[in-house]
Every structure is written in C-alpha cells, then in structure tokens.
Amino acid sequence: VELVSAGIVGASGMLGGELLRVLSVHPVLRSECIVAGARAGESIVAVHPHLRDVLHGSFERHDASAIAERCRVAFVALPAEEAATTVPALLDAGVEVVFDLSPAYRLKDAELHDRWYPDARRDPDLAAAAVYGLPELNRKAIAEARLVAMPGCSATAALLALGVLTKLDVPLDAVVIDAKSGSSGSGGALRTSALHSLRGGGVAPYAMTSHRHVPEIRQACGEFGLHPAGAEVRLGMSVFSVDLVRGLSAAVYVLSDGAPRSEDVRRGLHRRYRAEPFIRVQPAQGTTTPLPDPKAVIGSNFCDIGGGVDADGGRIVVVAALDNVAKGGATQAVQACNAWLGIAETTGLLSTPIWP
Ligand SMILES: NC(=O)c1ccc[n+]([C@@H]2O[C@H](COP(=O)([O-])OP(=O)(O)OC[C@H]3O[C@@H](n4cnc5c(N)ncnc54)[C@H](OP(=O)(O)O)[C@@H]3O)[C@@H](O)[C@H]2O)c1
Question: 78, 126, 173, 187: which could form a disulfide with 82 (CB 3.0–4.6 Å)?
Fold first, then answer.
C-alpha cells in the first residue's frame, strides 16, 4: 500500500489528539506534519500522554508551504477564526485536499455565517465550493472535493437521526432536538465554566433557546432531502452540558399529525442504514439490545440510533448517540478522507468501543 502523508494543524487540541491516535494505527494515512499554535515546540506526549511511545518529538510551528511539500492531505482542527484563513493558505500552497473540522466553511449563506461566526473571515469562493463532510449523506461529493467542511458533533447526531424521515412519508409540523454534550465538546481551552468543580454533577443548559449548529442542520436538511421537498419545517435545538467527558446524545422529536407506528420507524432506520458500517440501528424496544447510549460508543466511529413513536403525544422520537471527539469530530474526518482516497471508509476505523 502506498502511504499518504497527512498534516494535522491544531494537533495540540482535543480533536488533534484524537486524529493522532487514530492515524497511529491507520494502514494508509500517517501523521507527517504535527502542528500546534502556542504549544509549538512542546513535546507531543506532554500534551497527549496517551500517545507515549506511539509518537515522539515535538509539535511543529505552522508553515503552509512546508505542509504542502510533505503532505497530500491536511486536517485542520483550529478555532473557526484561525481555520478561515489557514484553510485557503494550505490549498494555495498545494495541499490536495483539506478536511476542516471547524465551522468556518460549513454554512453556504454568507449572512448566516457572519451572524453565527462574526470573527471567522473566510474566502467566499471556497465557502461556495466546500462540500459538507457527512459521509452517510454526501460521500460522492466528498470523493471529489478540495475542501471538506466537517459537520459539528450535535449536527452529525441530529442529521443521522433525521435520516429516517427519508423513509417515512409523514407530514412534519416541527422538529425539536434536545442534545446532551460532554465536556470535551468545548475543546481544551481553560474556562471557568469548564472547571470540574463547577461542571461535575450538573446538567447545565448552555444553549437553551438556540445553538450555532442549528443553521447547519437546517441547511443539510434542505440539501439532502431530509424533510419533504419545499417544506418549511420549524426546527430548533437546545443543548445541555452533562457530566460526561466524551459523548453526545441527541433526542430528536418530530411532531407530526400523521405519526406512523414504532415498527415503521424501526424499519425505516434499518432500510436507511443497513449498508452503513458505522450506524448501528437498535432493534425494537423491549429486546435485549439496549437503546442508544454514548457510553457504548466511546472511542469509536459508531453512531447508535434507535427510534419509536409516542402515538398519544403525536411524536416520532429518534435518539442518536456518538462520541463527539470521534464520530462527532476526528474519526469522522478520517472516514471522509478514506472516501476521498477511494479506499474502504472503514479503513483504520473499526476498533471496538470501550466499556464500561
Ligand atoms: N471538541 C469537539 O468535540 C469538536 C467536535 C467537532 C468539531 N469541533 C471543532 O474543531 C475545532 C477544534 O476543536 P478542539 O475541541 O480540538 O479545540 P481545542 O482543544 O481548543 O484545540 C484548538 C487547537 O487550535 C490551536 N490554535 C488555537 N488558536 C490558534 C492560533 N491562533 N494559531 C494556531 N493554532 C491555534 C491550538 O493550539 P495551541 O494550544 O498550541 O495554541 C489547538 O491545537 C474547533 O473549531 C471546534 O469547533 C470540535
């Protein structure tokens, strides 16, 4: 097999550390340029102790042309403000494809982008050309892209749950997403609200009436036909910080007058995802297979999904659970890169989650 060299920009962050871990066992991709910001020059294992004896040396300083010289592909795991300018610099320097894990190039609508990410001043032509990086919805386009804008973690879970709607012919009234997110979801920067003493044991609504992933979810619902064509669907999300390190659970409530039966939802999920190696659909409630819980997917690229119908409440309920650092971030970017390389999407990604 011909090895493909990758640059990891933002390698000292949460997603950067996970990218380094996954690439250390990937048979085709290898981490060639391991780049940090303020922590450039520091030892890699001092920041990522889990990589001891796996990787050696120090983080490099960012240099787009050095990366382009040594790497075909680049993963950018920076804050949106930095990614907005780093991504075009890497492409201009000659990197063949960039997987941007930040939100800088996700939204097509410039006004919406400026409203949610006012400090991320991006290249408008690249924003128009960027391809949304959810492989289960968009793998063909990913395979031909130069810039792949990877989805947010709660957007990934919500959109995979909403995928069932393509298999159910129901009129939609409204979609309500209720997400619970672990602390690694907000990255490695020090903040008072992230202190263990303040966050541990709590369930804090941190984005109660909206969230920056909502416009991205709406955009993808339209682009990938997750609700009936042309339908103006009301859709909103609330997100809570819960006492997990990794893990994200999104409960999606679809309010509909024409609620189908639980069996239809279950069958719809099976039909939608039966060929997807990373989506594990739960059988009917009451079987011995447990319903989706992030605890059962930690450290893996799996997303577990289960659903049913609350006939009295007029709700279709679908729950998706994933590891925000993995399927919600780093391993999903590797899955997209596998698709781009034209190798099996599962390459290097089939490790079993940890338990308990
Ligand atoms: N955490 C998640 O679950 C998750 C999931 C999906 C997407 N994302 C997105 O992915 C991106 C990275 O997230 P993260 O959680 O890994 O964040 P993080 O832990 O805060 O890491 C940020 C990285 O960016 C680098 N950086 C920050 N400012 C920089 C600058 N001015 N110049 C160069 N490098 C700079 C940091 O390097 P130094 O520390 O060395 O300065 C660090 O390596 C974000 O855009 C986030 O929204 C995160």
Answer: 78
Mean pLDDT of 256-273: 91
Q: What is the structure's pLDDT at 341?
A: 98
Residue 228 has pLDDT above 70, yes or no: no
- Residue 325 CA to ligand 1 center (angstroms) comes to 12
Q: What is the pLDDT of residues 128-154, one digit of tens each?
A: 999 999 999 999 999 999 999 999 999
Helix (H) or strand (E) holding 219: helix 214-223
Q: Which residues sit opposite 280 in a β-bridge?
A: 304
Could you give the CA distance from residue 344 to residue 80 in angstroms, rounded to a whole number?
A: 30
Sign of CA dihedral 57, 61, 66, 70: positive
Residue with CA at minimum distance from ligand 1 atom 22: 13
Question: What distance in angstroms lies between residue 15's CA and the mean position of ligand 1's atoms?
Answer: 7
Cα dist from 336 to 55, 137, 146, 265, whole Å: 24, 11, 12, 27
13: Cβ below 6 Å to ligand 1? Answer: yes
Is residue 352 within 8 A of residue 190, CB to CB? The reply is no
Q: Is 188 in the pocket of ligand 1 (CB under 6 A)?
A: yes
C-beta of residue 278 within 8 angstroms of C-beta of residue 308: no
Query: Quick one: pLDDT at residue 156?
Result: 98
- Of 101, 212, 335, the one to substitute when testing ligand 1's pocket (max ligand atoms within 8 A of C-beta) is 101
CB distance 329 to ligand 1 below 6 Å = yes
Catalytic machinery residues: 153
